[in-house]
């Protein structure tokens, strides 16, 4: 059984009348890549700072390595931390920036040189010790900040949105770098981000936060396939959420929504429900083409189409009212649909999760 690296127990934090964290509890396994994911203001960075010891919780406690952190200042927790701002010292060289935590711990000069060299090798920046940080690119600065956080070999690394300022290509490259470093070192990583794609790419598990609470926690594929709430369903991906009542009719379970009824899985409980119609799970058919066997088909009109390299995204205004996004992968059989064309958005009941609401 995996040991627990970090345990958060009933942590609460308020600023005046504003509740920032509301009775948050979680456990993070030793060597796990764990991400706190949520929109701005959900409390994820506040929770990370409480774990780091940079903020005090009003209630509850943080336990690291089996020891309570209550009353222990940040510098005694032996955590590596990388913030969005990176906080590199502009007047120091790359090597001096990376070696700074070791000098603060009064490590010997030879040992500092050895560890700095090793940390820069780890982040693939060898032979850059003498470079000024002002000469670094955005990606190189990120790597230097990572090297500085890892140079004293902490067992836990905390990341507070360090990649958010990078362009898309560089951000995705650094995401792969993080997974490589995690795999090589086996260090526990707690990552904060609002980027759902980043969370799904790098994480062993994800905790999704909303209004100071963790609303669902688990591996990314599980959260994506089986969201616990409409908020989770809408935050991961870009689905159409079709709300209605699940009823049994003629041996079939159907979700009734204003202006439309769709067939759902037989295992879906009766009552309030939300169909999570993700773009990649839908099919787009010509309205006047040959009929194909699908459980559901809604007529509509193409509003817009755009090719993104991986396929074509369509926006379709459904006759029942809402607009659905449909993604047709590149190389898929079928014709290109133009704006104004009549189409059918089709899917099978097993392809669409239903979030039940009691």
Automatic annotation (TrEMBL):
Keywords recorded for this protein, A-Z: ATP-binding, Nucleotide-binding, Transport
GO cellular component: ATP-binding cassette (ABC) transporter complex
Keyword Nucleotide-binding appears in the UniProt entry: yes
Xref: Gene3D superfamilies: P-loop containing nucleotide triphosphate hydrolases (3.40.50.300)
UniProt-listed Pfam families: ABC_tran, TOBE_2
InterPro entries: AAA+_ATPase, ABC_SmlMolc_Importer, ABC_transporter-like_ATP-bd, ABC_transporter-like_CS, Mo/tungstate-bd_C_term_dom, P-loop_NTPase, Transp-assoc_OB_typ2
Boundaries of every ABC transporter domain copy: 6-236
Source organism, top-level taxon: Bacteria
EC number of this enzyme: 7.6.2.9
GO molecular function, one term: ATP binding
Name of this chain's protein: ABC-type quaternary amine transporter
Species per Swiss-Prot/TrEMBL record: Mycolicibacterium agri
